[in-house]
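Task: sequence in, structure out. Protein: Thioredoxin reductase 2.
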Amino acid sequence: MDDLHILKTRLCIIGSGPAAHTAAIYASCAELKPILFEGWMANGIAPGGQLTMTTDVENFPGFPDGINGIELMDRCCKQSLHFGTQTLTETVSKVDFSTTPFKVFTDSKTVIADSIIVAMGATAKRLDFLGSSEGPRGFWNRGISACAVCDGAAPIFGNKPLAVIGGGDSAMEEATFLTKVLGGLKVKNVLSGEVSDLKVAGLFFVIGHELATKFLDGQLELDSGGYVVTRPGATLTSVHGVFAAGDV
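Result:
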């Protein structure tokens, strides 16, 4: 590869959500001059992560009236740039953590870094049916969500009949949380095969997440679900000098 496309840095951050930009801001303030890759994330999510698909964020400190998700991530990006982060809008295709310094590759660039932070995030899985998408004909963020803790207190859900789709521990936790804004709770056993109509004012998907860690397979220790394994109580991964941040 041409030397013009080889960049060297003390710290390379892979990701573009809140965790990645928080790391970038602190690293920049410490004069590390980080390089941040904000390529496409899991499920084809644009730079900025899941918040770019959120309308109003009402639980972020400093915005008592809420803030649009896209605007919030745009501000995070500008703050990173303000403190000296070099941002590259490219998707990382592979990495080499076998020796130091580490190497991070895109289709057009190679970054050689002393340390790495992986912060690609994850995307909530969603069912695909008529009305479940974004846009004028869809109800995503207008009655359909994937986070009860984030959206359950929204006025459109208050004291309304709601449904949670999911069968794991997380689904039960989300359903339990929603009892704070509901008048009651019903749990349906899906093993019976019974099909019936359920009229609800809100729907929550809790069917797992899709990770963006496939390119790390063979480079870092991953668990059976594809999550990066870190040292208990720390962010250090199986490779010394490589750290994990956020939902990875």
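The mean pLDDT is 83.
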